[in-house]
Amino acid sequence: MGCPELPVQTAAALYLASRLNREDFDVTAAGNRAAISLLLNSDPERHYIKKVMDIDRCIGELAQKRMDFDICFAFIHSDSGIAYLATVKALSTARTVAVIFGKEIEPLIEAGGDSIIIAAKAVHNPAPIRAKIDEVRSWAALMR
User: Fold this and answer.
1) What's the pTM?
2) Angle between helices 8-22 and 127-134 (to 10 degrees)
């Protein structure tokens, strides 16, 4: 997760983490300092976010092949999010999911490429992006 400029990002990340935890995924949240701080302040007992790491450290670990993931959700509301998605796709074997939100989502959707796309016009209200997340019945099923 990048800059938490849009409030919907934190709510969507926590909701998605809760869904993934119910499916027994080992969830790691990677983001910049502000994004991680908001997550941890919103989930102080770490019910949903069990592990966190700096996004640049995560990219470095992927580049060095010291870690990888089965699935990676990139939270995107600007071009920089697309750049991180492309970086992960180049360095990782993970299935990628572009979670796109904001006011102007169409260009970002086009730039999402062959990733699974979850997109909704959402800035403050997380309900539209949550509805799109709920359209996926099982994340584990997508891995098969």
Assistant:
1) 0.94
2) 20
